[in-house]
User: Fold this.
Amino acid sequence: MEYRRNLPHFDHIGATFFVTFCLRNSLPVAVALRLKQERDKGLREAEEAATPDLQKQQKYQIQNRYFQKIEHLLEHATFGDRFLNEPACTQILKDVMHEYDGKYYNLLAFCIMPNHVHLLIDTSAQLPPGEQDFNLEEYQYIKDIMRRIKGKSGLLLNRERNTSGEIWFKESFDRYIRNDRHLRYTLNYILDNPVKAKLAQQWTDWSGTYLKPS
Assistant:
């Protein structure tokens, strides 16, 4: 199933998703717009691929390069707000992401950085066991889940900081996990984020990092 807003999303029912979302002023608008235009041009060109499988492969590669560039911008930002690692703000985000664990998703991992958040969730938690009927109308897609997380956390963060207005960048950047190898790579990427940014010597030292107990 595919839905569109400003970003193209490929939403697979019951899939595991790697999501990045960021503070509203953490991306330079002109650069983000240029990257988006480059991405959209590549996706249009991929429509001309010989087979549907090749189209899918090329689109995934284009999206992946786009997300990597976005994440590079976030990790090397020298402007904008950087308050998510303040203890009270970190705790708000932890509580909100844990609140929906077991209901809309299985919470596998997250990392709360000063200006953005990496989140790994398995949405198969919504699927009924065995042969029970599945009510698609009640299913929460990734866009719905992120609306809940960003909406509630934004309200609480404004209350904590005595501010008002939008907290989050409108779009979230999501990728579905293709296989076990991709899952392991993504977990390592998330956990290593504060180490790579030289904010901690090891991932367990960073208070904003979570890994689901095995």
